[in-house]
Design goal:
It is a single chain. This protein is mainly α and about 200 residues long. It folds into three domains: about 35-85; about 90-135; about 135-200. The protein has eleven helices and no strands. The chain has helices spanning about 5-15, 30-35, 35-55, 60-70, 75-85, 90-105, 110-120, 125-130, 135-150, 160-175, 180-200. The longest helix is centred in the last third of the chain and has 20 residues, at about 180-200. It starts with a helix and ends with a helix. It comes from Tsukamurella paurometabola. It holds the Pfam family RecX_HTH1. This is Regulatory protein RecX. Keywords: Cytoplasm.
Length: about 200
């Protein structure tokens, strides 16, 4: 038997740019319409399309959106299952895109990325696979870029106390972005040493 609701998920997913603007039922719709199962399913489907039209979402994020709009758990899971089956919700792919984007453009380290994925409700298996796409070498290289950008605007102090303060500030900056303390310290010390030596040449 053909499930036309599932077919609609696929066909509409190919033209997600065309979405109604409002999130809920139009003013004047009756309470009976809002409680009608088919109407509720259509409203839930439209909400998911609009969310995915803005950006990728994890299944948990979409579940929370539907819950905040008052959709019951059975309807929510049924609709999400249809979108998963259609390939429009994929937590593994979402996690990989999130990690690559946040690491490359926001300079986030693995610790911060892991926390962000937990916040998004991504499962441990999917999160671990996504985090593995950022190697230790990748992480060190990105951390070095962040430090070099900061050092480009400052002179390396001759005074040991002032140099230690600079080191602490840079290590703290990397720590806030999710880099392990030992990696952060190693990167900062190397960068400060290299710039100090270059200034003496």
């Amino acid at each position: 038997m053909v499930d036309y609701a599932d077919d609609e998920v696929v066909s509409r997913g190919r033209r997600r740019g065309r979405r109604p603007r409002g999130e809920g039922p139009a003013e004047g719709e009756s309470q009976q319409q809002e409680q009608d199962p088919a109407k509720r399913e259509a409203l839930a489907r439209d909400l998911i399309y609009r969310a995915l039209g803005m950006r990728d979402h994890s299944r948990a994020e979409l579940r929370n959106k539907l819950a905040r709009r008052g959709f019951d758990e059975d309807l929510t899971e049924r609709m999400l299952d249809k979108f998963v089956a259609a390939g429009l919700i994929d937590d593994a792919a979402f996690a990989q895109r999130w990690v690559q984007s946040r690491h490359q453009f926001s300079g986030r380290g693995r610790r911060a990325l892991a926390q962000e994925l937990r916040t998004k409700g991504v499962g441990e298996e999917e999160a671990s696979a996504a985090l593995d796409t950022v190697s230790r070498e990748d992480e060190r290289e990105r951390a070095a870029e962040l430090v070099e950008r900061k050092l480009a605007r400052v002179e390396i102090p001759e005074d040991r106390v002032e140099r230690d303060k600079l080191t602490q500030r840079l290590v703290g900056m990397l720590g806030r972005r999710g880099y392990h303390p030992s990696l952060a310290l190693s990167v900062v010390l190397d960068a400060i040493r290299d710039k100090a030596e270059a200034a003496q040449d």
